[in-house]
Amino acid sequence: MKVSQVCQNKRSLSFEIFPPKKDTELSNIDATLEVLSELKPDFISVTFGAGGSSNCNRTIELAKKIKYEYKIEPVVHLTCLHYDKNEIDEFARVLKDEGIENILALRGDPNPNVPAKNDFRHSSDLISYLKTDNDFCFLGACYPECHPESSGVVSEIKSLKKKVDAGAEVLLSQLFFDNEIFYRFHEECKIADIDVPVIPGVMPVINAAQIKRMVSLCNASFPKRFQKIISRYEDNKDALFDAGMSYCLSQIIDLLVNDISGIHLYTMNNPLVARRICEGIKNIV
What we know:
alpha/beta; TIM Barrel
């Protein structure tokens, strides 16, 4: 089933996971998937590494597991900066052969060890190209606090509009920790006639070093309440986990009562995170 059909008709719940670095560890992901499947999510997205067929293979194998063993719709991340048209055509062929209908189209981050190619400079280029001869449902990424390379809000919204005009039917947001930022961004999308579902992405705070690295990479800001949690509990692993889960659940509840299009949770492949979130929201989604 195409994710756009679900997201247009109901408030969606979805998760993101990533393939283990080693093929031998692929079976270990079942612990997380068992928990996630209990909440019957509308889809689970699977990340994709930059460069190298092994990244693609692990992504596709995990997507197949989600679709055929757990009966949940997978969304495969597909980056394009490091691939040419022939390689993208081959990826598309494999996805179609495996019955995978949904693609999160991404440019991908520059990788100093993998040279960029010239066929696709933006995710909108990838969507436009693949839509010509394929019937995938395309999702796109969006950035409530602007992409780190963006010159500002106006440029960000213009780029997002271009992505939607190219064929993105659902937008998944980068993580953020201040819901007011997302609400402002959502309103800016409406003003720009971006009329597809804009689904907020939420990440639990459970590891101070990891979160600080993610925030620096994706340009997310620290609300004061968030800063207090980190500074108070960063040296107490168990306390930070509990406080981080509470903060994440409060974010999700606030988003839900404000009638947003859905929730997309970055699970970090942690079954404990998945379990705590599922227990906290199973009666309100």
